[in-house]
Amino acid sequence: MSFQFNFSIEEKAENELETLGDTALQLESAQASLNPGGSTKKSKEISSEENVHKESLCAHEATPKTADPVANCSPDKSQVQVLPKKRAGFIVAKEHNIPEDFSKVLENKVMEAVQGLYYVNISVVEMTLSNDSHEEDIVSKSISSHSDLITGIYEGGLKIWECTFDLMDYLSEAEMQFINKTVLDLGCGAGLLGILALKRKAKKVHFQDYNHTVIDEITLPNVVANCTDGGGDGGISEPPSKKHKKANFIPALMSKCRFFSGEWAEFSQLMLNGNKLFSKYDLILTSETIYNPDYYSALHDTISELLDKNGRVYLASKAHYFGVGGGVHIFEKFIEERNVFRTRTVKVIDEGLTRYIIEMAFKISS
């Protein structure tokens, strides 16, 4: 059974906050990024105009030529200060239930579009969360700490980091095949990598992020918004160009998805020891998850436990993350010392701070 929900396009970015109470799904067309024949580079920076950290972040980057809703400056994990916190405990992994009424997931959400994918306006979500009481309270903690990364509390899932777009570009350029593949978007945040796999006929797509607030307020709405007609045709459909144009929701696409939050080690154990039948992943996609060397062991073990013996990992990262110590070269050295995976660089993006796409596979795989 399918049902319809309304899409509406925001004509001007400055009207977005005024539509916060509007329960209709609203879209803003990003023409430059949606041109099938054009470059996707213009859509590499997600709007963060209301981000309280914008001025300090912009100081480290040259202003790119972009089109609305893409902003001239985006969060950059290579420059973000990470606040160390002593952990009183850990975040237990859990699976998030998918609501029966999908339209409620999109209530009070302002939607935008980039590279043919819908995503919630993150500034509006942050504003809503800061005004409401939430268990994790990650927005107010991030603001009060003047940091987008707080170790053990908040790991940046409310932002869309630029390497995500690098990996999306690579998957398109390489004509990566997702048909009948089981895919994990690890450290998913907005979930754009997993959504891309879903729209290209992946058999199953699982989304995992550290914070459950990110899954409920960012990832789930994004996936729901992209589960519309045209979403399962193997390509990327453009958003409607007129206000209030209806789009058919496709429950079959949503049924391919599962959503999880919690620490990687806990998530791994949940999948391996849970009540549901688990098939290891053919593809694991992850972006900007190696910024902190303290997490390498957990990341390595999670991948080694959940990846199919012939599976592949595609990881996007900056060369180095200042102030944190992580980066591609130190991670590759860690992988080499563990002697479980082989790695190879499949793409280098030499714009500003050098960025890489790395492929990982078991050394014994075919």
TrEMBL record:
One of its GO terms (biological process) is methylation. GO terms for cellular component: cytosol; nucleolus. Its EC number is 2.1.1.85. Residues 42-58 have a biased composition (Basic and acidic residues). The keyword Nucleotide-binding does not apply. Residues 31-76 are annotated as: Disordered. CDD domains: AdoMet_MTases. The keyword Isomerase does not apply. Interacts with GRWD1 and members of the heat shock protein 90 and 70 families; these proteins may possibly be methylation substrates for the enzyme. Protein-L-histidine N-tele-methyltransferase that specifically monomethylates RPL3, thereby regulating translation elongation. Histidine methylation of RPL3 regulates translation elongation by slowing ribosome traversal on tyrosine codons: slower elongation provides enough time for proper folding of synthesized proteins and prevents cellular aggregation of tyrosine-rich proteins. This is Histidine protein methyltransferase 1 homolog.
